[in-house]
Design goal:
It is a single chain. This protein is of the alpha+beta class. Helices cover 23% and strands 22% of the residues. The chain has helices at residues 30-43, 55-63, 106-111, 152-157, 161-170, 178-185, 231-245, 318-323, and strands at 8-11, 18-21, 45-48, 89-90, 128-137, 147-151, 173-176, 201-204, 206-209, 214-217, 223-226, 251-254, 262-266, 270-274, 286-293. The strands form 4 sheets. It has a 7-stranded mixed sheet, covered by helices on one side. The longest helix has 15 residues, at 231-245. Bound molecules: N-oxalylglycine and manganese (II) ion (MN). Residues 91, 114, 120, 131, 133, 147, 272, 274, 287, 289, 324-325 line the site of N-oxalylglycine. Belongs to the TfdA dioxygenase family.
């Protein structure tokens, strides 16, 4: 598909995801920028090979997409960010000495939750729209480390009719906390962490994706329960929907190929996960992410828009979020 003389769009999957070519990130006109947003609205995930972006230009480009989230609220207890801008989330596996984190380290255990299907920031009162993830240093080829995506708009469309009607009629609310995905990711390490004690961010389970006008299933490994139903029903619903939305036919695996490769995804219409591999514990995989605050009508879900995001980061899950998620 060709959108203009300047950029070309190569589909990566029958229903979503595209590789976009011909964008010169050192000089993006308003017209090209609008085209990128339009392509994002349709495809949900865009891959830009060898973008040439560095830390500063990554942050600057991201700011054109909206107000950026930052890591300041995690920088308590003397923690210092490794990266030079507060807007950069450290999504890689690099330890303080510049090596790959040890598999038995706290960081590695906190990171395991990212290998579960999720959307970024559903555990925050104000959710995220776009995430922009950029490669800085990659493991040697054939050591894994892909990022996988799932098409949650198509998954909604394809739900069995009775379940779809149930969701539409009940207007279910999902209650999210990052503690939930950390515990699921490494149950033994987090055996004393009780997600039910955390402050929950409340977001509707089914929402319209404003940029495309299509309905979306807003579900993630951070989702602790569905409000207003029994615990059993809630668990059954979460399991059914997660399983449904992440069937292989709805998923796409993107290989990181070169430093400065950039993937942008829209958390309001796709899920993602880190796909592990033999690089873990052996090779550096340095990925850095900016996260854009949603500015749509559903951005704050049912949460108070004056609520402080710090409330949602307990001591128990503090270290989790310095990473990414
Ligand atoms: C993220 C994330 C996946 C990966 O940065 O939000 O989930 O493959 N990353 O590192
Ligand atoms: Mn993530």
């Amino acid at each position: 598909m060709t959108t203009s003389k300047a950029i070309t769009v190569q589909k990566l999957h029958p229903t979503f995801g595209a590789e976009v070519r011909g964008v010169d990130f050192s000089n993006i006109s308003d017209e090209i920028f609008s085209e990128i947003l339009a392509v994002m609205a349709v495809h949900g995930v865009c891959v830009f090979r060898s973008s040439g972006l560095d830390d500063l230009s990554h942050v600057e480009f991201s700011k054109r997409m909206g107000e950026l989230d930052d890591v300041k609220r995690y920088m308590t207890q003397g923690r210092k960010p490794r990266l030079p801008y507060f807007e950069l989330f450290d999504a890689g596996n690099v330890d303080d000495k510049g090596n790959a984190v040890a598999p038995d380290s706290a960081r590695a255990h906190f990171g395991k939750g990212n290998a579960l299907w999720h959307v970024d920031s559903s555990f925050n009162p104000r959710r995220a729209s776009f995430s922009l993830l950029r490669a800085v240093q990659l493991p040697p080829p054939n050591n894994g480390g892909n990022t996988d995506f799932a098409d949650s708009r198509r998954a909604f469309d394809d739900l069995p009719e009775n379940l779809k009607q149930e969701l539409l009629e009940n207007n279910y609310v999902g209650a999210h906390t990052i503690a939930q995905s950390r515990k699921l990711g490494s149950p033994e390490y987090f055996k004393d962490l009780d997600p039910s004690k955390e402050k929950m961010a409340r977001h509707y389970l089914v929402q319209k994706h404003e940029p495309s006008g299509r309905m979306n299933l807003y579900i993630a490994a951070h989702c602790h329960h569905i409000e207003g139903v029994s615990a059993d029903k809630s668990q059954e619903l979460i399991d059914t929907l997660m399983k449904h939305a992440t069937q292989e036919k709805y998923t796409l695996s993107v290989e990181w190929q070169n430093p400065t490769d950039l993937i942008i995804w829209d958390n309001r219409c796709v899920l993602h996960r880190a796909n592990g591999g033999t690089f873990e514990g052996r090779y550096v995989r340095d990925l850095r992410r900016t996260t854009v605050h949603d500015d749509g009508p559903m951005a704050w879900g049912l949460n108070n828009s004056t609520s402080d995001r710090e409330d949602y980061v307990s001591k128990a899950n503090l270290a989790a979020a310095t990473n990414s998620s």
